[in-house]
Design a protein that fits this description.
Number of helices: 5
Shape: elongated
Structural class: alpha+beta
Distance between the termini: 28 Å
Strand content: 15-25%
Helix content: 40-55%
Length: about 140
């Protein structure tokens, strides 16, 4: 199975934010949308960073409440690991586990095409396992 299978099910909508937006505005969007990360994009929907709840909490702990007024460029992750729609779900799971991150932007032809979260991967994998179990049960009943 590929990342495209997840995007086909969940859609390709991604909440993005501009790099010069302050952290407080990003926190507001995260809370309102009930999401864990925002992809920071530049011109032409090109990924320039990602900011997660974890990034913000880490900086709040280190710098205190003044961090809320800083631009996202001060707190975002700049070296973003991305994937393509043709990447396998197991390779994405491995990347997330090894890198200890929960969101992977999907990039196609250099532009943002979607976002896959660890929740999306787990949901897809559980559905896949349920289908396999049903197929095995059907096979056993007809054997």
């Amino acid at each position: 199975m590929t990342v495209q299978a997840i995007l086909t099910t969940k859609g390709s909508e991604v909440f993005t934010i501009e790099p010069n937006t302050n952290v407080a505005a990003a926190v507001k969007v995260l809370a309102e949308r009930r999401i864990g990360a925002l992809v920071v994009t530049g011109p032409d929907r090109r990924v320039v960073g990602i900011v997660s709840e974890r990034d913000i909490v880490k900086e709040l702990g280190a710098r205190g409440p003044a961090v809320l007024e800083l631009p996202l460029t001060e707190v975002m992750t700049r070296k973003v690991r991305t994937c393509s729609p043709s990447d396998t779900i197991s390779s994405i799971m491995e990347q997330m586990t090894d890198g200890k991150f929960r969101h992977v932007p999907v990039v196609e032809q250099g532009r943002l095409a979607g976002l896959v979260s660890i929740g999306d991967v787990v949901k897809h994998r559980l559905e896949e396992m349920e289908r396999e179990q049903a197929a095995l049960r059907d096979y056993i009943q007809t054997a």
